[in-house]
Design goal:
Helices cover 68% and strands 0% of the residues. By secondary structure, the protein is mostly helical. The protein has three domains: 88 residues, Tetratricopeptide repeat domain (Serine Threonine Protein Phosphatase 5, Tetratricopeptide repeat); 106 residues, Tetratricopeptide repeat domain (Serine Threonine Protein Phosphatase 5, Tetratricopeptide repeat), CATH 1.25.40.10; 148 residues, Tetratricopeptide repeat domain (Serine Threonine Protein Phosphatase 5, Tetratricopeptide repeat), CATH 1.25.40.10. The radius of gyration is 35 Å and the shape is globular. It starts with 36 loop residues before the first helix and ends in a 6-residue tail after the last helix. 37% of the residues are buried.
Length: 442
């Protein structure tokens, strides 16, 4: 019969010596080795090890994405046209599917820019610029979108586009025009001259440099530089108006009259076909606003039948467009009161419609209610800060009762529309009238 082994948990005998509390060999508890995290992990069952590894990978991936994939900028789309919302949702989904695609970020930026969501567009263009370090297009669009918010920031951002391709025309041209509006004429002249060294017959650059030289007090140089701009379909009317301005300053009234008569017989200057903004943004305008602009463009081009056909197709979907067109027709008839009524009804249906509210301001101005009109134009600019025509009309309205504020508004109009001869002429007129008016005693 085998000997029975005593149980280890049996109570000790009363006469037995006390059992040592330390490890074998009598080592104290403080000297006992502490298991390392790795040994503890290795002691776990295999399935717990696998789960822990998966969790660690997921946390690391999420952290990397949080640090390296910036959030997609989302504008406030409350009350936005459903077509605009759908288009932005689709562009955002494409970015999420390929977050490292510069093209995806850039296309989202162009869509946002076309709908006047400037800050969000700039953020997208910046991301595209980071992902694609070769093309000048993304920093160019970032600068263009930013210029409506801050011309100085636009100038700074445009430096990257010029650095990437010093021979590209549009980055240097727009930066020169912005520098002029900021009063940095010497820098603008450097850009214009560098551009003309690459493209000697560039009409818009020649017109811009001629304006700059005239403002600096040069006598014969402006007209000598202007030559190519007098025949280009995108500058010939503006160039003749400028030539008339030069002749007037020189005291040559006959030459000024000849230039003005020539300008009056010319059609409006056509948009620049090479302009990247003109090529990209109209294709991405969505919803009601794009339809309103299209109706306006058709009317301005004299295509009234086509404008009527478009209006009849969409008036059931968007009655505010019908009212907008009705107001425009009343303005053409000279009935500003009836136009105001139609525009006010349209504004009630579409409070954020800048074109509708802008036309309401025009109807008020035609009634010589200039203070009311100025208030409406300010509402337009509160919605869309870079809306150049609103700055121009605000300046005209303010000129009747606040000349100093009118000059500031017209300076903003020139900054928003650097190529607008009309805005420049209004600003020059406002400044001249301010200098001629008697000053209050000190």
């Amino acid at each position: 019969m085998s000997r029975r082994r005593p149980r280890s948990d049996s109570p000790p005998r009363l006469d037995a010596p006390p059992r040592a509390s330390g490890p074998p060999g009598g080592a104290p508890a403080s000297d006992r080795p502490v298991p390392s995290p790795l040994s503890r992990f290795q002691a776990l069952p295999w399935w717990l090890q696998l789960a822990a590894c998966g969790l660690l990978v997921a946390v690391a991936t999420a952290g990397w994405s949080w640090l390296h994939d910036p959030a997609i900028p989302r504008p406030d789309l409350a009350g936005a046209d459903p077509l605009v919302v759908l288009a932005i949702d689709d562009a955002e989904a494409r970015v999420r599917m390929a977050p490292e695609s510069a093209e995806g970020w850039g296309n989202l930026g162009l869509l946002l820019y076309a709908q006047s969501y400037g800050r969000e567009a700039v953020a997208c263009f910046r991301r595209a610029t980071t992902l694609d370090d070769r093309t000048w297009r993304w920093p160019f669009f970032a600068a263009a979108a930013s210029s409506h918010l801050s011309p100085a920031e636009g100038v700074t951002l445009m430096e990257e586009a010029i650095r990437r391709d010093p021979k590209a025309v549009w980055p240097r041209l727009l930066r020169a025009e912005w520098l002029v509006t900021l009063g940095r004429g010497a820098e603008a002249r450097t850009d214009y001259e560098a551009l003309l060294a690459l493209s000697p017959d560039h009409a818009r650059a020649r017109l811009g440099l001629a304006r700059l030289l005239l403002a600096s007090g040069a006598a014969d140089a402006p007209l000598a530089i202007l030559a190519a701009a007098l025949d280009h379909p995108s500058t010939r009317r503006a160039a003749r108006l400028f030539a008339a301005q030069v002749a007037t300053r020189e005291g040559n009234s006959a030459a000024a009259a000849a230039h003005l008569a020539a300008a009056a017989n010319l059609p409006a200057d056509i948009p620049w076909p090479e302009d990247p903004l003109a090529a990209e943004l109209p294709l991405r305008r969505m919803g009601k606003r794009s339809r309103i602009k299209l109706v306006s463009q058709m009317e301005q081009a004299g295509a009234l039948a086509e404008a009527d056909a478009l209006t009849s197709r969409i008036e059931r979907e968007h009655p505010e467009i019908y009212l907008f067109v009705e107001g425009r027709l009343q303005l053409q008839k000279g009935d500003a009161v009836a136009a105001e009524k139609a525009f006010r009804q349209a504004v009630e249906l579409d409070p954020k419609g800048v074109e509708i509210r802008f036309q309401l301001g025009r109807a008020l101005a035609l009634q010589r209610r200039h203070a009311d009109a100025a208030g409406v134009f300010r509402e337009v600019l509160a919605i869309e800060r870079g809306y150049g025509p609103a700055w121009l009309e605000l300046g005209r309205s303010l000129a009747t009762f606040d000349p100093a504020a009118a000059v500031a508004a017209l300076e903003s109009a020139v900054a928003s529309m650097p190529a607008s001869e009309e805005a420049r002429a209004e600003l020059a007129r406002a400044k001249a009238e301010g200098e001629a008016s008697p000053q209050p005693p000190p």
